[in-house]
Amino acid sequence: MSDYIYLEAELAVHSFLLGIVLMVSYDLLRLFRLLIPHNSLFADLEDFVYWIYCAVMTFLLLFYENSGVLRGYVIIGVFVGMILYDRFVSQPVFSILKNIKIWFTIKIKRFTIKVRDCRRKKKAGSHGTEP
Question: What pLDDT shows up at residue 109?
């Protein structure tokens, strides 16, 4: 295989891997949003910064590996990497994480209710026993 074809194939693989890296980055952002809920203005700002990050990373891939020449298959490779990662890794993992968050939320609410009931019983019991 010629060196040119090898370099083009390597660029295609790197673009696919970049798509995966970009989706992992977005999953970290989604995890942050899951753990610390905030309003839509901040979520929109985070998305804006994320897409600028995606554009810069794709530009750097093209700049360093292809002398800045835009190739359609590189953009397609990035999107294919993003889509495949999202479908086969991200969605199952986040459904599990959401279920874990719901489970913890239920446990925390139950614990809070038990502590509150215990405090009420102590207050009610102490009022009648003091001389």
Answer: 82
